[in-house]
Structures are given as structure tokens and as C-alpha cells.
Design a protein that fits this description.
Radius of gyration of chain A: 22 Å
Largest sheet of chain A: none
Oligomer: heterotrimer
Strand content of chain B: 25-35%
Chains: A mainly alpha, B alpha/beta, C mainly alpha
Mean pLDDT of chain B: 84
Shape of chain A: globular
Distance between the termini of chain A: 25 Å
Low-confidence stretches of chain B: 508-512
Strand order of the largest sheet of chain B: 6-7-8-3-9-10
Helix content of chain A: 55-70%
Order of helices and strands of chain A: HHHHHHHHHHHHHHH
Largest interface: B-C, 68 and 46 residues
Number of helices of chain A: 15
Structural class of chain B: alpha/beta
Largest sheet of chain B: 6 strands, mixed
Strand content of chain A: under 5%
Number of helices of chain B: 18
Radius of gyration of chain B: 24 Å
Number of strands of chain B: 20
Low-confidence stretches of chain A: 1-23
Chain lengths: 425, 512, 364
């Protein structure tokens, strides 16, 4: 998704005054810093508003489960977009994945289900590659078409295969789920700490406990895929070549790189990851079996998480955590908890305003103050938010986060651009 | 020179594209260790030939031999293996990748991507005078450094035959000298160069032999020391090269464009792209702006056109009655309507709708004005008729006005744009690189049209990287450096070299 | 220059390809493709199906137009879905609450729908113009959020009424209805067919005869060239998005004012996405969109008959999905062939006089 405004309409490189950039903080340090700020804000909020749900282990556990599909879809988006292809078809590939997961798991157990989901998603990804890479179809058009097709194929196959088994064309029969594992000793100790209701300490204990209780292998794989994607994309020759296709395919071609091949590979991986995201909806305990419309736009939210994460694996993890958390919170805490989230946002804005003031960005600081004021008003004037709207908390968060983040992003340069072999100048 | 055996031998190369024969029966023979120039005007087929030699395109007929062995170059990888490297005219660099990543890309197998690669890389960087941090994003490099990165890329791959495609087009004379120094040094180490250019004095300065291409085919190979630039020019175009020389001055005292204290900050920052720009263009005057690309010329033009909002300062246009129009707060369309014609520097990005027919392109920028529009409604018939007029008057070669503009050659596209921009009886014409990438015929016609309009009282703001064009057409030259107008030059007396030092900031006097 | 090839061939190819592909799917599942397509085709001559098809196509056509307005300037208003549902529920509530004379009542409802649709497109437009946020993501989020808004507004605590198990808005008085065109035994044609026709003609006129249409197409094809020609990209984005939303507001009107007279929780969804497909099929051309809408509606309506011969009706969805994907591919292939032909033509013309030249900035 190219969200950055082209502030340089002529496209010429502007290189006159090139101010020396300050040495940026390394990515992991910034990630840690944000995590600390987030926990600080949440525990303060939970202390001030008395909403323990904000940092309960239950919320964290639900958040992890809900973040997984978004994380996997986001990783899928990362692979595709780093190779220069916009992948709005993640949703369709995810749907294919859900069907594949249920089908494979029903006949061969969870691991076969997972593989089938990856294979089905990858097929969707390859279809996207045929359309966008070989035939140069507009990436968004192709993605939308794949979403339609994915939905249609899954429905057709569900009617054909699942209806005789479950009696319902919209649902699969019950399928096996992944086992889960807990770090029991640690978990119990943290549980004690959580119940002790000590400021900050109990909050951290609650969140950590949620993350280490009843963890499935799929969750571990998904989380491992984040550093793995980083290493492959940024530290290997394959990754360098793949990213070069997203930055300047003509230059890559001039160096003898098979751009089509790398884009196909990237999209196959992208589709596979999206399919895995679909599997995480079907194969986790507590998740539904195959159910029509169960992806419910998570492919798109995954894409948004990736944009929020600035096309980087670490940032993407943060984005997925944010969406998973807001979704988990509304499920476990309802309207009051979401309202407390508004309060947390006010505190976070406060921190940001202080940073902006230190950096002498007066306008940004002023906007922050206004935003905080509005949110505080919402918090102060309501006891509970309308129940019908609560389930859409992650969607609202997506829009707000994109509105705040969009202009500082750095998408791959040639994203969405048409490229044909031998046509560059 | 030392070795009679040719290292590169192209014979009978023919390449057809839909509708055009880009190369027909081209012969080229390059000896080891020489600098071999390939000359020809824009559109003569030099670039296509080099793409064929670099494996980016396959010839329809003909053979290629490297070091006496016939080879088939199906892709750049094959060419690289055969020891050929190419420095492209439009740099093949990924802005968001670092210098190191750009060089290693595709050649990871040679030294890996770790420490060893870095030390090899540092050696080559030293050799070409590249002093930038290898972990810097290429985005932050200047033009000359980008070119050095391109050369390092070629060296890193172990190429012994280097194609330089119009390498001097983006450099000022001093940078050209530095480049030539590097080329000579490498030549001493045994590298062979194929040097593509249409600038004859440069060819004569660096080349050991010259092959001239005209209309897609080889005219002949000569020794540059025994032929004059004039003779070379005649080989290139079949006649003398057109000259941008303007004869008599038509400058009047009447102000047309007044820019005062213009400042433009980069979006969202307080970094000035333009600062303290003040200039006046009079009726009948061509004011030339010289400068190394990226020093704010593009921004100046876009700020005057209203495509970028100036942070402070004013822009005024005075019409024939002496009425002063303050343009500072107006949008681009309103500025155009007051009487500005605009030839943008990149015609395919800013000048034309490539998929739309010619008559539709005639409307662009004039969508509110007679004859093509009545304000809210478009008059298709009138647009077609007026486009026919332009096609006739400006010699645009096209079967009809219904052809999409993208199907025309660069020269014909530019003639259409010039015709369009002069058709609204403008007070001021802003011309950015008006003859970049067009053939000699179109170049001569465009220069002639600008001269004619100037005689009739048109004010022209000319931005060009072609110093001969700038000196030949302008009545006054201002030099731009880091977003400021730093000095003024008289085109009657200034030489390209003097202008070059002013452009790089080497000369600091008020008047060069 | 568009030859018949460019216009007609791609969709035909796509349909044939889709039929082949779905035949394979049918064969694998053990059904007879010929019998299945025969059953579907036979529906064309049944009066009721024909009228149903045209009625549904009316809805699809308006949806296609709404999407096409955005597509004209490369703006992907995926949010037509959310915009029409928001407009429908707001218009139904206002229409149910108002007591006005006939015609005026109807016009007020239509107007409310238009404004509500545009209003729901306002946020993505503002975010796109001021913050550069991709309209694709924001509109998709708003598509989901609209479920909550509809549920919230139809909730009996707010504006809804409980009918048995179903909640819906209050019924609109007959003064607000659009009268249908009775066709005897075949059923009743929506009066809104005329509204759709009017919109189609208006769309055509706007695109080809007005300055706004020119600017819209120009900024769609090349935002940079349009900007140099004095077309403000931000203004066009804003206008196109709002206009697209306004037209989207009308999508539910044929059914709301011609059949249902109230908007229920269970009202059909997904017209916005079908609009995208139909606009792609018709290549944003008013007549093309009409044909696409008819084809789509026909597939939907005739698929019901498949159940009589024990074939899953979802095969129609596969046909539809395949058609969309293959039609865009087919358009791309034909476009390439045409551009090459055009260049050949220009090349020939250039040869009388001076040589044709390949220039760096040119077309090759």
C-alpha cells in the first residue's frame, strides 16, 4: 500500500541540503522502549480506573490468540510488498487457508491441516503472481478479484465436501485442534503475583502469564516467523534480491536478477503465510471450525498492521499486538474496558506531547493535546460505549493509528508499479 | 591500440520494434584497452545497441563476439559473465538500499555479503574516488557519487569492458574532468571503454576512435584526432548541427514576471529548498537558469507554477495593459489562465496523458479556455481542429490526432507540447529542458519557435542542463546553487567551463 | 482509438475461459457441465427470472457506477459497500419518520441517501487528502464498522421496530415509494430502473463532455501531468470520493423504495463488492457496466435453478470470480497488442519524410 504522500512531485532526487542524520536507535531498543511505555500506560490506567481487565492474564491470552491471524497475514503482506507487489488479496488467501485447514485436519490431523492451509494460501498467492507479475494487472484489482474468487471457491468446496458431513454448507464438522502447553510452575507463580494486586508488578505478571499459558505450537511458529522473516529478508542474499525487486526492479534486472522469479517466490510465501493465518482461526482451541466469513476482514487488518509497522517485521509485530490486544480487550472486558482504553490513549498522547515539546514540534504537540482532550471527553461523558459498536474496536484503532502514522512511513519504492522485463530504460 | 584483436565485435545487428527499426545492420569493432566512442543524435539507436550488448534486449539479426568468441547474450547475467559492465544513463540504483547493498546485489556469490565483501568494496570505492559511507542509503548521495557507485558496481563484478551510456549528461564540466581522469587511469590498467555520447567535444577529448550511428545504422568509424567536430556532426545528422545562437536582442524594459523573496521549505520541515529568490523576466527576454540538477531549479519552476506552495515571498505577472496580477495565492490553473505556458522537464510525467489521444492532450491545462472548452463543457470538435493546426504548424509526425500521445516519438511529443503551450498567447513561457532527449530536427524547430515568440514579446524562463543551449538562447543567465540564485552571467561572454565552476560553487565572485 | 477487438474480445474470452474452468470444477465434482449450463440458460426465457434479473441488475448497475467514478481516477473506493448500507439505514429511518406528500417524500428520501452516502465517504477522503492514508484500508475498515452502526441504529433502543423475530426500521409510507412497472404474470419491474438509466446517461455526459470529467480522467491517468495542467489532485480526490459515495447512497433505493419499504438487519449485503466486479467487467464504460450488471444478475438468479439438479449453486460464484480475474487479464493482453499496432501505424506515418526514431523518452 503506498500511503506516503509524494512530497516530491517531480520525482527528481532532491539532494541539496543533506543534513547529517542523527544516529537512530537500533530497532530492538526502540521496540523495547515502546513495550515499556505501553505497559507503563496500561498499568497506570488500570490503577487509576480500577479496570483490572486491562492487564489480566485472560486478556493477554485472548489477545495472543486473536493477534496470531493478524500477525501471519501481516507477515504475508510484508513478503509480498517487499517484492513490490501490493497484496490486498490476503483476505482471499486466508479464506482458502481456513477451508484447507479444516479439510486437512479432518482427514489427517492438525499438522496435515496446517500444511493444507499453507498450500491453499500459496495457490492463491501464485494466482496473484500470474495476474500481477506476468500479466501486469493492477495489483489492487487482482487482489479484489482474488478475494471474490477465494470466497467463491471456499463456499463451493464447503458445499461439496463439508455439507454431507456436517449437514451445513457454511460449516465444517468438528476438526482436531492443536495441543497447548503451559509453563506451569512459572505460570502459577505469576498467577499469585497477579492476584496480589500490586501496582505495575501485578500488571506485568498478568500480561506475561497470559502469554505463557496454553500456548500452541502454531503460536510459537508464528512468533518465530517474525525474526526468521527478518533474517531471510535482510540478512541473506535471497532477501537482498527479493527486496531489490521492490525497490527498483529495472536495476535488479540490469544486474542479472530474475525479477519475475523472485516476485513469484515472494507471493507464494505471502500466500502460504496468509493461509497459515487462516489455519490459526480454525486449528486453535477456542477457535471455530471452518465457518463461512470467519476471517471477517482480518487479512485487511493484517495489511494495516504491516503498514503501521512501516514494512518491517518488528513494527508489524507491534501492530498485530495492538490489534490483537484491542480485540481481546473488547471480548473479555466489553464496553467499560474499551472506555478505559480511551483513558490509556489519553495518557499515551500525554507522553507523545511531552516528546514533541522536547523536540520543539509545536503543531504536533498542539494536535496531540486536542486529540487527548476529545478522548478524555469521551471517557468522562460516557459510562459505557454502545454495545453494538464495541466489536469493531480494532477497526477504529486501525483507522486512528493509520491517520497518525501514515506520513512517516517508508514503503518500498517500486511498490505497485508495473514492471515488464526488457522495458526499462 | 596495443592489441589489434578486437575485444568486442558486433556485426550485422538489426533490431525491430513495433513500427520502428531501432538498429539496422550495425557494425562495431572495439579493440582491447581503447576508449571507443559511439556517437549519434538522440533517437539514432545508440541506447538500443548498448542494451543489446548488455543482454537486456536480443537482436533480431546479427552476431556478437567477445574476445573473438561468438556469444549469445540472453540476459545481463550472460553479459556480466562475458566481462561486460554497464553504467546506465538513468542510474540503476535502488534509493532505499545502502551503497553496499546496491553494489553487492546480484554479485553475492563473489565475496559473500559479509566482511570480505566490504573490504573488496572499499578498495574499489577508493579507486573511483567514492568517499561516502558504504552503509548510507543511496538516496542521500549526489549525482557524481551515484555515478561512482555505478562504476564500482561494474568493477566489483570483474568487468574488463565498461559501457558508459551518456555519462556526462548529468555532470558539470569539472565533474566531467574528474570522470575522464578516472577513465584514463582505468584505461592504463587495461580496461576497455565504450563511451556513448552525442557531445562531440567530449568525444574528441577522451576517445581513441569514434563510431558514428545515424538513423539506426553505422555511418563509419574514424579517428577523432583526424576529423573536426564539424565533420563529425555532419556524419551524425547528415548536415550541420543546429545552433541555439540568438542573433539580436529583443529585451524590453517591460516587466512580465516578478518574483520577490521566494522561499520554499521541504514539506513538514524548516529545511529550505529555495530561499531568497528574486528575479524579473522582461518582455522579449529569455532568462536562463543554470545549475547542477537537484539544486532547486525544479522546485523554483514548480513554485512559480503553483504546483508547490511557497512558504513566503511573492510571484507577480504583469500583462500587456500593465495590470499586475498577484499570483502568490493562486492555484496552478489560475496561474496558467493569467498567461503562463509551461513546458515541463519530464514530458511523459508532467506534459502528457500517454494513453489519451493527441486532441485530448491539447485540452490539458486549457480545460477552461476557448477554443477547446467553454468553461464547464469540453468542445471536442474544436479541440480536434486546433490539434490539427498544431500538427500542421509544428510538424508533428502522426497519422492522425486520434493516436495516443504515448505512441509518438520523444521529439514529436515535445513539438506537440510546445505547440500547445504557445497556443494560448501566453505572456510568459516557462521552459524546463525543452529539448532534452529529442532529435536534432525537433530541437531546431523548438529553438526556432521560442526565438520567434520572443521576438513578439514573449518572456521566457529557461531552465536547462545543456549549457550550450542555455548560453545560446538566453539574454541573461542566473546560476542556482543549493536553492539560491548565487550569481549572474552574461551569455555573450561566459564559457561553459566558467558557468560550470559557478554551478558547483567553485567560483564565489558575484559575477563570473 | 478503440477497435471492436479491444472492446468485445476480452469479456468474451473471459466468459469462455470461466465456463471452461467451471466445467472442470463440475466434472471433478461429478456433475454434467452441459446439463448445468443448459438449466441455467433455460432460465433466461422464464418471465419471472428475466424480471428478477433486470431488477437485480438495476441495483448492480448503480453499484458499478459508484465504483467506476472512483476507478476513473485510480481511486479504489472499496467502501461502496459501507456507504450504501449506511445510506440505506439512514434514508429508511428518515423516510419512515417523515410525513410528506407523494413524490416530494420520495425525493427527500433519495436526497438523504445521497448525502448519507457521501458523508460516509468523507472520512476516507479527508484522511487520504490530508494524511495520505490509503483509501483502500480505511474504506475496508469502515465497511466492517457499518455492521455495528446498522445494528446500533436499528436497535429498538434507538430507531428500530421489532417485527416478530426481526428488527427493522419503521415502514415508509406509500407516499415515499417508487411505483413499480407491472408486467403481468412476470412480476413487477422496479421503477428505479429509470433512475439507473438516468444515472448512466449522466455518468456518460459527465465523463465525455464536461471539464470535470476530463479532469477526473486526467488525474486518473497521470496525477503528475494533471497537476502540471492545473488539476489539483487533492480536490479531485475529494470530489471523486464524495461523488462515488453519493451514488453509492442510491444503491439500496430500488429495493428499499420499490419492494421492502423498511431496512432490516437481514437486508442483503455485498452489493458494493459486486459493484467492483461489475465496474471491472464493464471497464468503467456506462454501457459496459450495464452489460456486466445484467450478466452478474443473471448468473445469480439462474444459479438457484441448479439445486433442482443437485449441483451446488456456488458454482456461479466461481464463474463470477473467474470472469473478473480473467477479464482484467484479457483487457491487459489486448491493450498491449493494440499499443504495438498503434506504434506500427505511427512508425509507418513517420517514414514518409524522415526516419522513425526510437527516442529515450519515447514509447518503446
Amino acid at each position: 500500500m503506498s500511503t506516503a504522500v509524494d512530497s516530491n512531485p517531480s520525482g527528481e532526487p532532491v539532494m541539496m541540503p543533506a543534513p547529517q542524520q542523527k544516529r537512530a536507535m537500533p530497532g530492538w531498543a526502540r521496540g523495547m522502549l515502546w513495550a515499556v511505555v505501553a505497559i507503563g500506560v496500561l498499568s497506570t490506567t488500570s490503577y487509576l480506573t480500577g479496570m483490572n481487565t486491562l492487564t489480566s492474564s485472560n486478556t493477554a491470552q485472548t489477545a495472543l490468540r486473536l493477534a496470531l491471524p493478524i500477525l501471519l497475514a501481516g507477515l504475508g503482506g510484508l513478503w509480498a510488498e517487499r517484492s513490490g507487489v501490493i497484496n490486498i488479496g490476503l483476505e482471499g488467501m486466508m479464506i482458502l487457508g481456513t477451508w484447507g485447514a479444516a479439510w486437512g485436519a479432518y482427514y489427517g490431523g492438525v499438522w496435515v491441516g496446517l500444511l493444507a492451509a499453507i498450500a491453499f494460501g500459496a495457490l492463491g498467492g501464485l494466482l496473484h503472481a500470474v495476474a500481477t507479475v506476468t500479466f501486469n494487472v493492477n495489483h489492487i484489482v487482482s487482489g479484489v478479484a482474488i478475494n471474490l474468487l477465494g470466497l467463491g471457491v471456499a463456499k463451493y468446496l464447503a458445499t461439496l465436501v463439508f455439507e454431507p458431513l456436517s449437514g451445513n454448507p457454511r460449516q465444517s464438522p468438528p476438526v482436531p485442534k492443536f495441543e497447548t502447553y503451559s509453563a506451569t510452575g512459572l505460570s502459577d507463580w505469576l498467577g499469585g503475583l497477579e492476584d496480589a494486586q500490586r501496582v505495575v508488578l501485578s500488571d506485568v505478571a498478568g500480561l506475561v502469564r497470559g502469554l505463557i499459558t496454553q500456548v500452541s505450537p502454531l503460536a510459537m511458529i508464528a512468533i518465530l516467523l517474525v525474526p526468521l522473516s527478518y533474517i531471510v529478508l535482510w540478512r541473506t542474499r535471497f532477501g537482498l534480491r527479493l527486496r531489490s525487486c521492490g525497490e527498483n526492479p529495472v536495476a535488479a534486472e540490469s544486474l542479472g536478477i530474475n525479477v519475475y522469479g523472485y516476485k513469484y517466490a515472494a507471493l507464494a510465501v505471502s500466500g502460504g503465510l496468509a493461509g497459515m493465518g487462516g489455519a490459526s482461526l480454525v486449528l486453535l482451541p477456542g477457535g471455530a471450525d471452518y465457518l463461512e466469513n470467519q476471517t471477517n476482514g482480518r487479512g485487511y487488518i493484517g495489511l494495516a498492521a504491516m503498514i503501521f509497522g512501516n514494512w518491517r517485521p518488528g513494527g508489524l509485530l507491534g501492530g498485530a499486538a495492538l490489534f490483537g490486544y484491542s480485540d481481546g480487550l473488547q471480548l473479555s472486558g466489553g464496553g467499560q474496558a474499551v472506555l478505559a482504553l480511551c483513558y490509556a490513549a489519553v495518557l499515551l498522547l500525554g507522553v507523545i506531547v511531552v516528546i514533541q515539546l522536547i523536540r520543539r514540534k509545536w503543531i504536533a504537540a498542539a494536535l496531540g493535546v486536542v486529540g487527548a482532550g476529545i478522548l478524555y471527553f469521551i471517557y468522562w461523558s460516557n459510562d459505557e460505549l454502545p454495545r453494538d459498536l464495541i466489536p469493531y474496536t480494532p477497526h477504529f484503532v486501525t483507522i486512528i493509528v493509520l491517520a497518525v502514522a501514515a506520513q512517516r512511513l517508508r514503503p518500498p519504492r517500486a511498490i505497485g508499479a508495473r514492471y515488464r522485463r526488457g522495458e526499462g530504460d | 591500440m596495443t592489441d589489434p584483436e578486437p575485444v568486442v565485435e558486433l556485426s550485422g545487428i538489426t533490431k525491430r520494434f513495433p513500427g520502428v527499426v531501432a538498429n539496422s545492420d550495425v557494425h562495431l569493432s572495439v579493440r582491447a584497452g581503447e576508449v571507443h566512442a559511439v556517437c549519434g543524435e538522440n533517437g539514432a539507436g545508440k541506447s538500443t545497441l548498448m542494451k543489446i550488448l548488455y543482454g537486456m534486449q536480443q537482436p533480431d539479426e546479427g552476431t556478437i563476439s567477445i574476445n573473438g568468441e561468438p556469444v549469445k547474450l540472453r540476459n545481463p547475467q550472460d553479459a556480466i559473465k562475458a566481462g561486460i559492465g554497464m553504467v546506465h544513463q538513468h542510474f540503476m540504483l535502488a534509493d532505499n538500499l545502502t551503497v553496499k547493498e546496491n553494489v553487492l546485489l546480484g554479485a553475492e556469490a563473489l565475496h559473500g555479503i559479509g566482511k570480505k565483501a566490504r573490504s573488496v568494496l572499499e578498495g574499489f570505492a577508493e579507486q573511483t574516488g567514492l568517499h561516502a559511507d558504504l552503509d548510507l542509503l543511496v538516496e542521500r548521495l549526489g549525482v557524481a557519487d551515484r555515478q561512482r557507485v555505478e562504476i564500482v558496481k561494474v568493477l566489483y563484478r570483474g568487468a574488463r569492458i565498461v559501457i558508459l551510456d551518456e555519462p556526462t549528461a548529468v555532470l558539470v564540466p569539472q565533474e566531467v574532468d574528474a570522470l575522464f581522469e578516472t577513465v584514463r587511469e582505468m584505461q592504463r590498467q587495461g580496461f576497455t571503454f565504450i563511451f556513448i555520447s552525442h557531445k562531440l567535444d567530449e568525444v574528441r577529448a577522451i576517445a581513441d576512435s569514434v563510431t558514428v550511428i545515424r538513423r539506426g545504422t553505422t555511418v563509419g568509424t574514424v579517428d577523432p584526432k583526424t576529423v573536426s567536430s564539424r565533420e563529425l556532426a555532419e556524419m551524425m545528422v547528415g548536415s550541420a548541427l543546429p545552433s541555439p545562437e540568438t542573433r539580436e536582442s529583443t529585451v524590453t524594459e517591460r516587466d512580465i514576471l516578478r518574483v520577490a523573496g521566494l522561499r520554499l521549505d521541504a514539506e513538514g520541515t524548516e529545511r529550505a529548498l529555495l530561499k531568497n529568490i528574486s528575479l524579473t523576466v522582461h518582455a522579449g527576454e529569455v532568462l536562463g537558469i543554470a545549475g547542477v540538477e537537484g539544486n532547486g531549479q525544479t522546485e523554483l519552476v514548480e513554485a512559480i507554477m503553483g504546483m508547490r506552495k511557497a512558504t513566503s515571498g511573492s510571484v507577480e505577472l504583469v500583462d500587456a495593459d500593465g495590470t499586475v496580477h498577484d499570483l502568490t495565492k493562486l492555484g496552478t490553473l489560475a496561474r496558467r489562465e493569467t498567461g503562463i505556458g509551461y513546458i515541463a522537464e519530464d514530458r511523459t510525467r508532467h506534459g502528457l496523458l500517454l494513453n489519451q489521444p493527441l486532441w485530448s492532450n491539447r485540452i490539458l491545462g486549457y480545460q477552461t479556455r476557448q477554443p477547446v472548452s467553454s468553461g464547464r463543457l469540453i468542445n471536442r470538435q474544436a479541440a480536434r481542429e486546433d490539434t490539427e493546426r498544431i500538427v500542421e504548424q509544428y510538424d508533428v509526425r502522426t497519422p492522425s490526432v486520434d493516436v495516443p500521445s504515448g505512441a509518438l516519438s520523444g521529439g514529436n511529443q515535445q513539438k506537440l507540447i510546445v505547440g500547445r503551450e504557445l497556443s494560448g498567447n501566453p505572456l510568459l513561457l516557462i521552459a524546463s529542458h525543452p529539448t532534452r532527449g529529442v532529435d536534432v530536427g525537433a530541437q531546431a524547430l523548438i529553438w526556432e519557435q521560442i526565438r520567434t515568440a520572443r521576438r513578439e514579446g514573449l518572456a521566457v524562463l529557461l531552465v536547462s542542463a545543456d549549457l550550450d543551449e542555455l548560453i545560446g538562447l538566453s539574454d541573461t543567465i542566473r546560476v542556482m546553487l543549493r536553492g539560491e540564485l548565487v550569481s549572474e552571467a552574461d551569455p555573450a561572454t561566459v564559457t561553459p567551463t566558467e558557468l560550470g565552476s559557478a554551478m558547483t560553487g567553485a567560483a564565489t565572485e558575484e559575477d563570473v | 482509438m478503440k477497435s471492436w477487438r479491444t472492446v468485445v474480445l476480452p469479456p468474451l474470452l473471459a466468459i469462455v475461459f470461466a465456463l471452461v474452468l467451471s466445467s472442470i470444477a463440475l466434472l471433478i465434482s461429478g456433475a454434467d457441465p452441459l446439463r448445468a449450463f443448459g438449466t441455467m440458460g433455460a432460465q433466461l426465457f422464464k418471465g419471472t427470472t428475466a424480471v428478477d434479473t433486470v431488477n437485480l441488475a438495476t441495483v448492480y448497475y448503480i453499484a458499478g457506477l459508484a465504483v467506476a467514478i472512483g476507478f476513473q481516477m485510480n481511486l479504489f473506493n472499496i467502501g461502496v459497500e459501507g456507504q450504501y448500507r449506511f445510506a440505506a439505514v439512514v434514508a429508511a429511518i428518515v423516510g419512515g419518520a417523515l410525513r410528506l406528500p407523494p413524490v416530494l417524500h420520495m425525493l427527500v428520501i433519495l436526497l438523504v441517501a445521497v448525502f448519507a452516502g457521501a458523508f460516509y465517504a468523507l472520512l476516507p477522503a479527508i484522511l487520504k487528502v490530508t494524511r495520505g492514508v490509503s483509501e483502500v484500508i480505511t474504506t475496508i475498515m469502515l465497511n466492517s464498522i457499518v455492521f455495528g452502526i446498522v445494528a446500533f441504529l436499528i436497535n429498538p433502543d434507538q430507531f428500530g421496530v421489532l417485527h416478530g423475530n426481526n428488527v427493522a426500521t419503521e415502514e415508509i409510507d406509500s407516499s415515499g415509494w417508487i411505483p413499480g412497472i407491472p408486467l403481468g404474470g412476470a412480476g413487477t419491474l422496479f421503477g428505479a430502473v429509470l433512475l439507473a438509466l438516468l444515472l448512466g446517461v449522466g455518468y456518460w455526459f459527465m465523463l465525455n463532455r464536461t471539464r470535470f470529467g476530463f479532469e477526473l480522467k486526467a488525474s486518473g491517468e497521470s496525477p503528475t501531468a494533471a497537476a502540471a495542467g492545473g488539476v489539483s489532485a487533492k480536490k479531485m480526490t475529494m470530489t471523486a470520493m464524495l461523488l462515488s459515495g453519493a451514488v453509492a447512497g442510491l444503491i439500496a433505493m430500488p429495493e428499499l423504495l420499490g419492494r421492502d419499504h423498511e431496512y432490516a438487519m437481514t437486508a442483503t449485503q455485498g452489493y458494493g463488492f459486486i459493484g467492483i466486479a461489475v465496474a471491472l467487467l464493464g471497464r468503467n464504460h456506462p454501457a459496459g457496466i450495464a452489460l456486466g450488471a445484467l450478466l452478474w444478475a443473471f448468473l445469480d438468479k439462474s444459479a438457484v435453478s441448479l439445486e433442482q439438479i443437485q449441483v451446488p449453486r456456488e458454482i456461479a460464484t466461481i464463474i463470477q470470480g473467474t470472469i473478473v480475474l480473467s477479464v482484467v487479464v484479457a483487457y491487459e493482453i489486448v491493450k498491449r497488442a493494440d499499443l504495438a499496432a498503434e506504434q506500427r501505424r505511427v512508425g509507418r506515418a513517420g517514414r514518409n519524410g524522415s526516419p522513425a526514431s526510437v527516442s529515450e523518452g519515447g514509447a518503446v
